[in-house]
């Protein structure tokens, strides 16, 4: 096979592989994010627990830890923030890579405009763009 | 019952073939060389090559605010060329097509009509982003308190093929869900900002739940991947649409009813500012499109001056004009000018000339039109039609295609034959025969006065002489 063709195909395949891995990562992160969200919702409702600052069992992946409830809430919140930013980064990376793939295939016009910064919904909704 | 309904649907889908519906593109190869018969275009090679070059420049954004004039005799493919260019530019480029006389109406002034046409041809590309929760409903649980005044508690469990999660929901959300009639097995989408719920359908896995289903249920797959997704949608909207929406509180209704009236200049300036600001912030792309004005000789001197200035604006589309007049009077003045366009505007235009078609080209075009209109025509009849096209005009020959098809169907034939074409030729007269007939019998038509025609003939002779003199100069 012509080395240029080989190179070209290798590039596309590599990018595609990376995109698929990142997509799977997002799924795993979101799973954890959702379970964090559920536990946070339950914890913040239990006012008596938080007032007395009793210790609760917190499951961190493989092992359990006994932590003060207020600290537990903090921990989960920071975890959530971490997940949010990680997922955001992954999303931007996926977008860049898929645009690259489209460009290499000569279909750049189909993904034109995805570099644009998003406009707030309050402004776009009155424009009634979904016809 | 369902058979009857499907018949009704088919009737409403009748496709009407328009004059230029057979054109799919310019028919150029990768080196911008025109193929003789391709994508609905036939012959006219140099004009197509020029058009191809211009389309490429437009796509690269290197020709904003310029103008092109397609000039040639009637029936030489000017409008066809413009249609082909619009197809080549694709759906991403705004293409507005108007006829010169459309600008004159009682509802709005010429400059307003012109401004609207220009602004319809400039597009803005923006992106909307929303965080949504998309999944199949596993269960909705609402706990009603014993007393009527107590607060309701609600929980909804959503799942995708990879995960599931439970959310606590408030009163408004519960109301929305019950209004939409959402139950277990429905696939829904909830916007995190604003909490709007959209029902996407019912999950396939539940299609066998009931033996009989109503026809309006659409089954969708259970969503895969993560529950909380970021959705980005890119939209293209013309600046004119933005003007309309901002100038009336119920602007989007007026958008569909067509009548927009005059829009204030301040609103237009505000929109321009906003769009330019977005462009700077990286939130929008401005896409200059194409404004095609057919029958340019119908525009008058005021609209031409307006066009001159409009072309020099920051946001201006590419102007393509078509004219089939020679040296003729500019409307609104007593001066004559090539194509009826003032020389200062002509100077800014790139001119593409179209030539009359040859015998072989006309034959090809008639064949393509016959295919487009679903008419089978045999070789002899095609040759006769081509001869008619050469003698009279291409348009007349094209009109004869569908009419001779009707005649042949009447005698229960399958193909159009020579005699069908002959019959239609005698039934429908072309321009030359019609004017000849008029000259012989004009005394018998209504409102005929001898002196009128004599004066007209005198003036025509004078005009001819003046053109000849100008040519000599």
Automatic annotation (TrEMBL), chain A:
<keyword id="KW-0143">Chaperone</keyword>
<protein>
    <submittedName>
        <fullName>P53 and DNA damage-regulated protein</fullName>
    </submittedName>
</protein>
<keyword id="KW-0963">Cytoplasm</keyword>
<dbReference type="InterPro" id="IPR030482">
    <property type="entry name" value="PDRG1"/>
</dbReference>
<dbReference type="GO" id="GO:0005737">
    <property type="term" value="C:cytoplasm"/>
</dbReference>
<dbReference type="InterPro" id="IPR009053">
    <property type="entry name" value="Prefoldin"/>
</dbReference>
TrEMBL record, chain B:
<keyword id="KW-0805">Transcription regulation</keyword>
<dbReference type="InterPro" id="IPR027238">
    <property type="entry name" value="RuvB-like"/>
</dbReference>
<keyword id="KW-0539">Nucleus</keyword>
<dbReference type="GO" id="GO:0003678">
    <property type="term" value="F:DNA helicase activity"/>
</dbReference>
<dbReference type="GO" id="GO:0005634">
    <property type="term" value="C:nucleus"/>
</dbReference>
<keyword id="KW-0804">Transcription</keyword>
<dbReference type="InterPro" id="IPR003593">
    <property type="entry name" value="AAA+_ATPase"/>
</dbReference>
<feature type="compositionally biased region" description="Basic and acidic residues">
    <location>
        <begin position="453"/>
        <end position="464"/>
    </location>
</feature>
<dbReference type="InterPro" id="IPR042487">
    <property type="entry name" value="RuvBL1/2_DNA/RNA_bd_dom"/>
</dbReference>
<keyword id="KW-0347">Helicase</keyword>
<keyword id="KW-0067">ATP-binding</keyword>
<dbReference type="GO" id="GO:0016787">
    <property type="term" value="F:hydrolase activity"/>
</dbReference>
<feature type="region of interest" description="Disordered">
    <location>
        <begin position="452"/>
        <end position="473"/>
    </location>
</feature>
<comment type="similarity">
    <text>Belongs to the RuvB family.</text>
</comment>
<keyword id="KW-0227">DNA damage</keyword>
<dbReference type="GO" id="GO:0006281">
    <property type="term" value="P:DNA repair"/>
</dbReference>
<keyword id="KW-0234">DNA repair</keyword>
<dbReference type="InterPro" id="IPR041048">
    <property type="entry name" value="RuvB-like_C"/>
</dbReference>
<protein>
    <recommendedName>
        <fullName>RuvB-like helicase</fullName>
        <ecNumber>3.6.4.12</ecNumber>
    </recommendedName>
</protein>
<dbReference type="Pfam" id="PF06068">
    <property type="entry name" value="TIP49"/>
</dbReference>
<feature type="domain" description="AAA+ ATPase">
    <location>
        <begin position="64"/>
        <end position="358"/>
    </location>
</feature>
<dbReference type="InterPro" id="IPR027417">
    <property type="entry name" value="P-loop_NTPase"/>
</dbReference>
